[in-house]
Design brief:
The structure holds two protein chains of two kinds.
Chain A (H helix, E strand, L loop, with lengths): L3 E4 L2 E5 L5 E6 L7 E6 L6 E6 L5 E4 L2 E6 L4 E6 L8 E7 L10 E2 L3 E6 L1
Parallel strand pairs in A: 2-11
Antiparallel strand pairs in A: 1-3, 3-8, 4-5, 4-9, 6-7, 7-8, 9-10, 9-11
Chain B lengths: L4 E3 L2 E4 L5 E6 L6 E8 L3 E9 L2 E5 L6 E5 L5 E5 L8 E8 L9 E2 L3 E5 L1
Parallel strand pairs in B: 2-11
Antiparallel strand pairs in B: 1-3, 3-8, 4-5, 4-9, 5-6, 7-8, 9-10, 9-11
The chains are: A mainly beta, B mainly beta.
């Protein structure tokens, strides 16, 4: 059962473009939604995270938009750079559960062309 | 650098063998999580320990086991290895208060079973 669905699987944009990655979740008990960036051969690195009581959060060039009623959230990368080329994962967890494991989406491979 | 360390970086072994993967969490973090990343299954949660006690279990095979020691480092033991166990294994850690949900990942151990 895939509880977090992520799309698209891959994305190519020109430098300066705005890649948008979308995620949808099923479990309404999820209350913490982080995004991770992973470069080849490295571990996932926490980029930015949001909780359902906020509709948007910005950190640098990364913005999360959150739609609680639709159970969807998305990542926008503003003014994308070739160095942003990586795989991005959305995730969700239940922060108040005994174990706050992360449930990950399938990942989106982003390529930013110079 | 997340502050989470994992050893070894690479491991090549044969079917039927047993291996141990080691993880040291960030200084002060009491929670340790293990995740498996494979091409077909993506990032999957295996198990979580908190201050030496098992906190949550995911889709971890019976052939796999883990523990967290008094110094908070953790080990993941994989036995009777099969070809399908070839994957990247990540350890993550999180803090005790405030930002308890932020999980920081180590660089991973790439396991190849031949």
């Amino acid at each position: 059962q895939q509880q977090v669905k992520q799309s698209p699987q891959s994305l190519i944009v020109q430098k300066g473009g705005i890649p948008i990655i979308n995620c949808a979740y099923e479990n309404t008990a999820f209350d913490y939604f982080p995004w991770y960036q992973q470069f080849p051969g490295k571990g996932p690195a926490l980029l930015i995270a949001i909780r359902p009581d906020v509709s948007e959060k910005k950190e640098g060039r990364f913005t999360i938009s959150f739609n609680k009623s639709a159970k969807q959230f998305s990542l926008h990368i503003m003014d994308s750079q070739p160095g942003d080329s990586a795989t991005y994962f959305c995730a969700a967890s239940k922060s108040r559960a005994a174990g706050n494991k992360l449930t990950f989406g399938g990942g989106t491979r982003v390529l930013v062309k110079p | 650098d997340s502050g989470v360390t994992q050893t070894p970086k690479h491991l090549i072994t044969a079917t039927g063998q047993r291996v141990t993967l080691r993880c040291s969490p960030r200084s002060g973090d009491l929670s340790v999580y293990w995740y498996q990343q494979s091409l077909d299954q993506g990032l999957q949660f295996l198990i979580q320990y908190y201050n030496g006690e098992e906190r949550a279990k995911g889709n971890i095979l019976e052939r796999f086991s883990a523990q967290q020691f008094p110094d908070l480092h953790s080990e993941l033991n994989l036995s009777s290895l099969e070809l399908g166990d070839s994957a990247l294994y990540f350890c993550a850690s999180s803090g005790t208060s405030g930002r308890i949900n932020e999980q920081f990942f180590g660089p991973g151990t790439r396991l190849t079973v031949l």
